[in-house]
Each structure stands twice: as C-alpha cells, then as structure tokens.
Design goal:
alpha/beta; D-Maltodextrin-Binding Protein, domain 2; Alpha-Beta Plaits; six-stranded mixed β-sheet; 8 helices; 32% strand; binds phosphoribosyl ATP; binds zinc ion
C-alpha cells in the first residue's frame, strides 16, 4: 500500500494554514512539536516537516512526493517539479525598494547600482528583461537593513503589508513577482501515489470552495419571493419551502463571501426576515 509523502513548512508563516487545510480535509495526524515526520491516522499520507527552502529539492529528488511552499521559494529554487495547485494563502509580493531619499523615476535608475536580496535568480531574470546591469548582493536574512548599513543601494525582498519597508525608511518602487503558497509535486509519481494525490486534491478543492461560500436561510412573505429569488445568485435556483405561517416561505441558498454584505442588504430591503448565515464544510460538485 503506497503512502503519499507531503512536505510542509515546519515552523513559519505557512505552517499553521497548511496544517489547518489538511485537517479540514478530514485528515489528521499527531502534531507534536519537534517531530520531523507524522503518519496520518485516516489517510495514506505522511507529513514531513521541513524548512521551506529545502522543500523544492526534496520534492524533486522524491524524498517528498508533494510539498506546500511559497511560489517565491519554488521559482527561486529552479527545481524540476510540477506546479499542482495554488493554495490561496501566504500571499505576498517580491518588490524592489529604495531609501525614501532616493529619487526614483523608473527601473533605469537602478542601472549600475547594488541590490541586496535573498532571491538572486528571480531578481536577475527581472533585471535582464529590463536591460539593467546591477550588482546583486545575496544575503539570507534582514535584507531590509542593507541600505542603512551601506551594503546596497536598493533591496529586493518579500513585502506583505509594507510596514517593514516603512519602518526601515524604504519605499517600494517595483513589484516584480506575486506569490502565494502552492503545491508542488515530484515529476515521477507512481500510479498508486497519483490516485492518493487525486483524492487529496479532490478534498482540498471541496474545502476551499466551501470556504468561499455561505449557506443562507431566510423567511420571506410570498409576495416578495420573486424579488428575493432574483437577488440570490445560488448554485442552482434556491430552495423555497412553505412556512407554517400562512403567506410566508423559507428560502435556502448558497452565496459567495465576495458579495456577501451587499446581498444581505438587498435581501433585507426586499422584505427578508430572520436571515441565518452558516459556514459550509465541504462543497462537492
Ligand atoms: O525557517 P524557514 O526557512 O522554513 O522559514 P522562512 O523564515 O524562510 O520563511 P517564512 O516563514 O518567513 O515565510 C514563508 C513564506 O511565507 C515565504 O516564502 C512567502 O512565500 C510567504 N510570506 C507571506 C512571507 C510574507 N508573507 C512576509 N511578509 N514571507 C516573508 N515575509 C517577511 C518579509 O521577508 C519581510 O521581512 O515579512 C516582512 C515583510 O512583511 P510586511 O508585512 O512588513 O510587508
Ligand atoms: Zn526559508
């Protein structure tokens, strides 16, 4: 019986969300800190806890079959692996930033300058595309302090809210790469492992789709039903059931989180009462 080996970040920004998603797929494992491997109780999968930078290498070599890692790390590592699925979390961007006093008008202003980064390959690729010759200083941490200690004129680093740049007197001038967590996979998975992977991906998709949607129940006077049904963009048409009280119905549907508040407001204006909104655990097509 095959076991699919999934590598996740041991400790860091992607760890918690990765574990949460696996658990939401009804897959559980002993989660004791300090462990390097955990066998899942109820699914033919083993979790390997690794430093994120090691994951692409291990997946390429087949030590792990699949891995959850930032696209920034996967692309920078330049390993021969498959991109399987974007996970929708761990979103960030890789940006160029310069000291606030730097008169920046265009990428041409970085011609001949020095840039500190932990992402030399992605940066070099971007600079080459724009015909910029710059000196790249590879440093592995605290890139944002490089300009203030005179190590570089600019930096290329991960930005999320921008507050790290701000507190180091830097301004973001170019966004060069957008990233989120992805699943990468070994290129030579056995047929057995592919079957397990498909099952895992099926569950993941159902969980992720469910997260984006809510189940909504409301009561409405029959006279308002047409209007209310038009507002609800459900998967199919909503379910309408008569209430014990004459002239009233209960309406059930699924709405996406995106337009949520706008739809609720419209429903209230159309006469809906007793609106209940509930999370959905899984959504299976
Ligand atoms: O120990 P290990 O090597 O496994 O972890 P790590 O320290 O290398 O990585 P970690 O946990 O910091 O990040 C893991 C992944 O999360 C990254 O590879 C990105 O894909 C993603 N991610 C999302 C981020 C951020 N957001 C982020 N904000 N990675 C890093 N940052 C850092 C950034 O380097 C900078 O120092 O946060 C700072 C900027 O944040 P803001 O909000 O101030 O802009
Ligand atoms: Zn790392």
């Amino acid at each position: 019986m095959s076991i699919l080996k999934l590598a996740i970040q041991k400790k860091g920004r992607l760890s918690e969300k990765s574990i949460e998603l696996i658990n939401e797929c009804a897959i559980s494992f002993p989660n004791s800190t300090g462990k390097l491997v955990a066998k899942c109780y109820d699914f033919p999968m083993e979790i390997l806890f690794l430093r994120d930078d090691d994951i692409p290498d291990y997946v390429q070599d087949g030590v792990a079959d699949i891995g959850i890692v930032g696209e920034n790390v996967a692309v920078e590592s330049d390993k021969n692996v498959d991109d399987i699925l974007k996970m929708g979390f761990g979103k960030c961007r890789l940006s160029l930033a310069v000291p606030r006093s730097f008169q920046y008008n265009s990428i041409q202003d970085l011609q001949g300058k020095s840039i500190a980064t932990s992402y030399p390959k992605i940066l070099k690729n971007y600079l080459d595309k724009h015909n910029i010759q710059a000196e790249i200083h590879v440093i592995s941490g605290s890139v944002e302090i490089a300009p203030s200690i005179g190590l570089a004129d600019a930096i290329c680093d991960i930005v999320s809210t921008g507050s790290t740049l701000l507190s180091n007197g830097l301004k973001e001038v170019e966004q060069i790469f957008h990233s989120e967590a992805i699943i990468i996979g070994n290129k030579n998975l056995s047929e057995d492992k592919k079957v397990i992977l498909d099952d895992f991906l099926f569950r993941l998709n159902a969980v992720r789709k469910a997260k984006k949607n809510k189940y909504i129940l409301l009561n409405a006077p029959n006279a308002s039903l047409d209007k209310i049904i038009q507002i609800l963009p459900g998967i199919k048409s909503p379910t309408v059931l008569p209430l014990a009280e004459n002239g009233w119905s209960s309406v059930h549907s699924v709405i996406t989180e995106k337009d949520f508040w706008q739809i609720i407001q419209q429903l209230k204006e159309a006469g809906a009462e007793g609106i209940l909104v509930m999370p959905i655990e899984q959504m299976i097509d």
